[in-house]
Design goal:
By secondary structure, this protein is mostly helical. Helices cover about 90% and strands about 0% of the residues. The chain folds into 2 domains: about 35 residues; about 55 residues. It contains 3 helices and no strands.
Length: about 90
């Protein structure tokens, strides 16, 4: 990766990007301290969000399985009876 491709990838020269990131990090950090936000709280909140999404996904599969089972209780015996009736005719 030559210098031009690196500059294009990171959005400028490495020194300029580093200086911008330094000042933006300083401003965001000061705002977080002023609001009483701890970075660990953000990590734990993100972890809780991912776990909640994970649990919802498996809960959805649980409902899907229950619906499938309830439908199969009706559909499979009806299908079997129809197959037996058609088998006897043939």
């Amino acid at each position: 990766m030559n210098g031009t491709a690196l500059n294009r990838f990171i959005g400028g020269t490495p020194v300029a990007v580093g200086v911008r990131l330094f000042f933006v990090s300083l401003i965001v950090g000061a705002f977080m301290v002023w609001q009483g936000i701890d970075p660990a709280d953000l990590i734990f909140a993100f972890d809780r969000l991912l776990r909640h999404i994970w649990d919802l996904g498996f809960q959805l599969f649980g409902h899907f399985g229950r619906d499938l089972e309830m439908g199969a209780i009706v559909v499979i015996p009806v299908w079997l009876v129809l197959r037996l009736i058609n088998w006897r005719r043939a």
